[in-house]
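Forwarding these from the shared drive since the link keeps breaking.
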Amino acid sequence: AWSDSKGNGGADKAVQRIEELLRTLMVDLEERCGEPLSVTEPLFQWLMDHACDLVNKYYVRKGSHTALEAIKGEPHTGEVYQVGAAVRPRRSGSARGGVAHERWNDGVYLGTQFSSGEDILAMPNGKVVRARAIQPTREGVPTTNAALNVIATGPAGGSEVITQNTVGPMKRSE
């Protein structure tokens, strides 16, 4: 039965793990921003998605494997950034404007897409994009509530790949 706690024990424990991690991530992000964040904004949905991703990649289950290892046969070896961290995604495709044209933009890290491993970022105009290559910005770039509140959509709203053609000059009106 659905109310049988023994039958739902594994699922209940997974939900508890994710809730605990989500609370920890939220407190950390609020401390880095220096102010409370809203649970009704798209950022919170990305934070929840990130918590689930971390549990799948790093929580070791019975049998000494993570969920990711059980699915893909190998552990996660990529970089992990804090949600809200300032990062620089690389535009893919040919450099528009010649080889000297800037290929790295500013963005805010939101998480990693589980199926493809692409990093998910919010651009300064609020657009959510996926990138295959990112790098951290210099130390000391603060996480701000203003940068997080412009995020236009949550995980269900979709994202696009960052290319030379899809992300132009960052305009607030886009």
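-- next protein --
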Amino acid sequence: MNILFMTIGKMDNIEDHTIYCDLLRCFRDTGHNVYTISPYEKATGLQTKYEEKNGVHMLHVKTGNVTGRAGLIEKGFAQLAIEQIFIKAIKRYYSDIKFDLIMYSTPPITFCNVIEYIKKRDGAKSYLLLKDIFPQNAVDIGMMHKNGIKGLLYRFFRNKEKKLYKISDYIGCMSEANIEYVIRHNPEINRDKVILCPNCIEPIDMSISTQARKHLRAKYGIPEDKTVFVYGGNLGRPQGIPFIIECLEKLKGNKRAYFLIVGDGTEFEKLKFFFDREQPENMKLMSKLPKDDYDTMIAACDVGLIFLDHRFTIPNFPSRLLSYMQAKLPVLAATDPNTDIGKVITEGGFGWWGESNDVTAFSKLVENAVSVDLEQMRIKEIKYLMENYTVSMVYENIKKEIGL
């Protein structure tokens, strides 16, 4: 079977350990022909290139700046333009390939014309990996409005979203809460095509030895005698940075806990201002690290942190949960009440959850975490990972759904 995967994310090497590469390798290794198309954004200075690499056909297409720190207007126009750029590239480089399945993820929601083109040309089935519910997520955190003149943009993208759901033969959702949300807010959709397709990985034991842990803590100036809470990832509006700063302010004198924040994003400077002003002794802020360095440093910590802005009405389900699980870090999540990630963590027995509008409650959860035996939680965590989030399980589910 010929499979085309489209993304606006970076995809240079199928051997990378990401949620998409792990899944596509599973298709490749079970005998399917995998083709990808992804951007070489303007900021990289790279030109369109096709290559066969590690058993996968990879098409990198020169586009505008569709991700990163580009401004919202610039990214918006680039994402709207990407459809015709991708169609043109497909006609040139994949003209003689008949695709049986086209897979794509959100963001963006602006792939409709590409999907329609492939479906009409090849009779392919279409499978949406729904990782982001836009434009409602932008409305939730004040980046977009539904009413008045500003509502024109919302209605434009909402129509795009509805069209994407309509032309997708299958809509794979990250969790049960996602399934319920999509069906409830899009009653015109055939509910039978909205199915569970969680974030998944090819599990790798990312934990490290006691000696390596000591070495890494010394390398990064992290104390050995404290429970280290780490947040790694995007630092933008979705994470609710003002709440994070409030929590850090309350906990800066804690003698048993140490907080490590690693990442980059539009709100990084707000955190930096707090750290520069307060100079907290039990906290450290680091900018984004190379993936290998980040993975090893995470493994030297004790508890992984997840933050989501309390205003969200959509049920986000951050994929960084899987990074923590692979490193055997119990998880403390502070989120809105609409996501079910807290339910997964607490019912799975490998972490704590509270709402991201209650600093006092978060502080109490930290006290709980520094007082318990984390080893039993690690055992439950790995068990939950292996039973729910492996690529082999998701691959088999996709096969069953699409009738392979």
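The chain has 15 helices and 14 strands. The first strand starts at residue 2 and ends at 6.

- D.
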